[in-house]
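User: I'm curious whether this sequence folds into something compact or stays loose and floppy. Could you predict its structure so I can see for myself?
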Amino acid sequence: MSQYSPIKSHNAAGIIKLGSVTRGWISGLAWSPNGDTLAIASAGGLALYIQGFGGAPTQLIEDAHEGPVKAVAFSRDGRLLATGGADTVVKLWDVDDKSRQVHLRVSLKGHVDAVEALAFSPEGTMLATGGVDQTVRLWNTEIGMQLESFVGHEDQVSCVAFGLGGNVMVSGSWDKSIRLWDLKGETRGTVLGMHDDWVRHIRVSPGGTLLASASKDMTVRIWDLYEATQLAIYQAHYAGADAVAFNPSGDVLASSGRDQLIRLWDVASGDLLHTVEGHTKPVLALEFNPAGTMLAAASGDNTVSLWAVPR
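Assistant: Here's the prediction. I'll summarize afterward.
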């Protein structure tokens, strides 16, 4: 039995820091679906901590891209890892069943500027990517080929996600908009809503129906994807919100920002549950592990920290 409890509304105030590692300028985090691996994307390459956290990574690929690794994601079955780089390339990596280490399968080329974001579809057969070239692109991961390129944003695309069971892609941009791309119909690039400044990050709830967005305008917003409506605005982080993450049950939302803080929110009520201090620079990425017992946070202070609630 785990020595840590799932992070929930009733115990969020009991969260403590377990430890941290230094990895250089960090841009993305991803937990494997079974929770045994934490992948870290940074200016120093791709680092994997496998069945342990602290010290040197189990696998470090410094030349994963020609330049900083900007984004990282696991497929839901854990067999694939995707990375996007400042070198404009998207890479798919096979995950070894036994060692859990990764090996390059294919490089995907189509973007003409840095790849800032990526996300697997629920089935893992498609990958969405977004980049500085203002496009959202859709790739078939089984044959390693671009399916479509979507144009509509007027500035760089900073975040992408799949919602509603994988039937829509969602993207956020420096142009302040969040757009919906219907993969089953003809509605492409519909504006879900606008922030007052550029959208830094989005995350779809475990049920696929809610979207959380973080913006430079200092707010975190909650959206209903079915109804295409805004449900709530959290006045979240002074100087800007950078990242959001739902816990696996979808009742707690973590947010972080330029104020160096992590905040935990009750999704149903919108109440602030707890504020976490511990970093000395903006907190740029957040990721709950699949069991919901740990929250990984990456900061501009060049560290990744783990937070948990002891039993």
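Summary: The chain is about 0% helix and 55% strand. The two ends are 10 Å apart (CA to CA).
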